## 1
Amino acid sequence: MKEKYKILPQQRVGIFLNDTVDWPVAFLSCIMIGANPLLLYRNLLETDLNYLCDLADCRFIICKDNESFAGRTAIPESEINTDADNTVEPYVWNNDEMCWWTLSSGSTGKHKIIVNSHGSFERLYNVANKRVDIKENDVVLSVAKMSFAWGLAQLMWTLSNKSTICLIKSAPAPAIIFNMIHENKVTTLCIGPYVLDAMCKRKDRKLPSNLKIMSSGEYLTEQLRKKIKEIFGLKVFDGYGTSEIWSAISIQQDDVSFDNMGSVIGGIEYKIINERGKECLHGEPGELHVSHPAQALMYWKDQEASNENYIGRWVKTGDIVIEKEGKLIFKGRKDDVFKIKGIFVSPLDIEKTILEHRYVENCVVALEENSSVENLVAYVKFTEKHNDNIAQLRKFLKTKITTERIPKHIIEVFELPRTVNNKIKRKYFLESSRLKNKNKV
């Protein structure tokens, strides 16, 4: 890259590869010559890919051999492992310099580009290793793609502990995951709830009794945790974080209840801020602010979002939490929670209750707004088709939650739209235009 393509320090290089051995080689090569690797999801739409590369001033893209991009230099994957004639001296970076660039998930809006420094990248290893507990003889299977912050964190924790990581080149189908676990004697499975739930449908398959499952990327429900215990006899440890502060605030321990995110890792500071901008009293819900040794620098070319979310040494996570007995309880995203008749309502609490119904597979609760009334709407995917599903669910909810928390509208859907990294796309349900013609949802 340095000699043939004349890539200079602090130039962006997009990594648009499947998860193979070539991916970490490409990523670390960029770091070695001082370039800024821009992590691109393989399933991005062409319009989104062009938008993000233009935004990042990205002129180079490491990609498959047969791909090309108008106005950019494509670096074919086949060149990655070509022997070089000369040894390349590592670029000597400053801790404050820009290092790798990643994307926000886009679950509540458009993707933003997140810029990380060399200093935060170096400190990543030390932040959560005692909770992640990856040892030299471990074999880690990362279902999370390397272009996600959670996947990259697993890669670097694994390599820095001299252990082995297995990557999935294609889409993470349950059959592939089961086979790789057994063929490679995997000891740690890093996975998201969506794929984990899909594995539960393969009840004919078994998992090793010593397998440690670490979930992250999306809220892990009590129902899914219980399902894993019942089907496979295994516990699930839940990691919490955001792309801005890595995925390492907390990892659930055995003594943590289902509702809790867990305790905050040593070396990370936090505070919970209410709507009035003051620190919350004990048990009061508020937005989680974090001061993290490995936090990002800013959003690229989005000064307004950077000023809003990066306050001195604090990063606003956008997550609403409650602290109880030293543990944090996740109540939902700030964009999602709301008040009805002056009462604080968390959609996750209502969704959790809906998921207790035996014929519900998944759901999303959103707020329908008009000029005078605020009503809850539940979009529900049922496991079985019955004519009275909605009526039975409404009857069930009346025995479980108060009247103001029961959704006025319950709409059956066949699928819940997801982002490119498999998070439920809540923004879809928050747009009022989606509520105007419910029969087409």
## 2
Amino acid sequence: MKRNDIRALADEAYQILDESDCNVAVLRAMQVLENAPKDVDSYLLLAEVAEEKDRFDHALNWLNQGLALNLDDEALLLKKAAILLDGFEDVDEAFPILCALEQRFSGKSIRELKDSYDEELVLDVYLLLTDCYRLQGDYQQAFNNALIAKEIAVDDESALLAIATAHFELGDYTKALSLVEPIDKRQEMSDFYWLKAQIKCAMGDFAQADEAFISANKVDRSRYHRPLRTSQSCFFAAFEQASLALPREIRDFMNTAAIEIKEIVPLEWVKESKGTLSPLALIHVPTSTKSGSKTIFLFHKNIENLALKKSEVRDLIASALLHELGKLMLL
């Protein structure tokens, strides 16, 4: 089969995939692979079909097979990093792949990058790096990479959302809000409504925050929910229930600390942290004072914003305590 025929078959498979007919797309993808067993696009296509069906293990398998034949291919490496992040939440494996790709761009201007590489590929590398740094709690580096993404694709909504989120995470709420609005002109309005809700909540404007949460839910119910709202007494009861489910070592640590519930993360704390404390933090344990005393802060609204039902408030508190205090106890 000629190269043009293979490309036409691959394009047909992608079109079928866009129409959400995964089973037919699989057949077309297998035809592409049969006729072009070493072609990068064959493995990319099969990985995307598997990803569409939430078979991330199969997607990773196809990508590894493709990389065995095309070791340094940027598209395969980028897709592998994306699957590791989105499918497995494996930052530790995805991050080095993205850093190695970014190293290939070193020393090149934005114009040179666009001339040398596919623009969408370069953009996705920086967007995924932004996500990695965010997940690692390095919000300054997340901002730096989001800024590059915005320079690469000025009008891209994903890049705009990334830089707005990065401004928000560094405590520049006004700038973040100015980048989000006007939302009715966005293609993916639900993403922007959700970010606006988080910004308004961090600013203490809870009524407008809830309006934006509701708008995000109305636009896309499959991805965005209406947060649960509880009284402070109910929240504290959930905290007590969560504490009982924790390992004894964590409970012993908590017995040496004071517990304080705040509605949101204070803006001054976000700015003083220099890019290490997110306004979306669920809990925070500041460095010990000179007297050695500790305080564990829980942020009521941030935990509520993630919950769909009361039991999830308890589970979120338990998970946050286990993660943050467990990490602290290992230091």
